[in-house]
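SAMPLE LOG
Freezer: B-3
Tube label: C17
Construct: single chain, 191 aa
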Amino acid sequence: ADCDGWGKVTNSDYIIADTIGVIYNRNYGPGGETERYVRNTAVCAGDPDGDGSFAEWTRTTSSLWGGLGSHTSSCASNAPYIYISEYIYETDGGGARIAVEIFNKTGASVSTAGWSLLLFTADNAFMQANLTSTTITNNDVYVMVNTAASGSTTQEDQVFANNDAYRTVILIYNYDDPNVDGGGPADPGAD
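STRUCTURE (predicted):
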């Protein structure tokens, strides 16, 4: 694979659909204190590059778990891919309870096959959580929680490994399926 000056792969078949936090900067991003980021309803797609200003998000430090699993959008147009609509990080003594809500505003049902979250703990250290195989209907959400948060919400579609240091979260398609035969990846919006 070819990389740009920051080490970002430039010729891979994977698709970064959304990022909360800033890629390659572990000091920018959610996590570290009790907080909730909810994607503004007027935002119509994910942000593949991330953003340190968090202008697309509303941040709160209270009422963390209410409303998880019920994102809405005021957008008339459809998004090209599913995207992160909510992120919760709650300190819990020696660890943290974490939730990531993924929203489908593509205009059609989307299979989660091939989709993953990359949960970064440092610039180049991350855990990959592959979404379990299911379908997210249009205008619906898929909620992932870490083991410490299991049981904290009424909608839990998947539980992933516990870690209290996630700083940047990336929603990515086809990360583990490199193009070795020249065929290229399937379009995730074509379900």
